[in-house]
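Morning F.,

Quick status update on the modeling queue. The single chain you submitted on Monday has been processed. Sequence for confirmation:
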Amino acid sequence: MTEFMGELIGTMILIILGGGVIAGANLNATKAEGNWVLITIAWGLGVAMGVYAVGDVTGAHINPAVTLGLATVGDFAWAKVPMYILAQLIGAFIGAVIVFFHYLPHWAGTEDDMAKLSIFATDPAIDSPVSNLVSEIIGTFVLVMGILFIGATEFTDGLNPIIVGLLIVAIGMSLGSTTGYAINPARDLGPRIAHALLPIPGKGHSNWGYSWVPVLGPVIGGVYGGLFYQAIFEATPNIWFWVMSVVLVLILGTSLKVELKKAQQGKQRTA
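Structure tokens below.
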């Protein structure tokens, strides 16, 4: 198997299991009654299965943010980055199409168009783009840092994918409820494209106005996670660590300013 096909298949497995559990929870007339714990566990197992499937072939990044984070610390060749990301996007798209066909009789019986979209792509609990961006940055920062921690620790053969899966579960339970924790540009963009193209009965818009958040946030968080690990744990900071640190401070400051302004306006309306 080629590395391209490996990343495609690994990401496809992730989306089949991750998107599948959301479909089971959100679509009417299924035998599942989903909740957040069920969804986070299934996503964690989806990652673990993807890693088991292709880890020996590609390292099983199955996430552009992971690919970029590992390349940032020199653990992955930059020359392979475009190929990996393309494979991940295609795999995520195919996985979403498979979920669509698996639940084919159930789409027409569900009226909530946003529930249908959430099977394919993320959307925030509170629509506040800068703060949503911060959530995706933090979640992906923790993801890449966690993967680097796991990689630096010796485990019994075959245990690493389970530990990575548990990391995804922990991120979902602790940090995922604000935005649906894309923490993976391919996981959101590939299925969102599928949602736009597929003949889903009663579907609404694909919310392209929000789509930049689950792409840019994970990219920033993944790259900074790699730079932070390199600077702090390996004691080899470089100029990009400091540049990204300044950028993040500006993003955090902007988020705080926006939310404080909203809070003040809310008080004035109720006064």
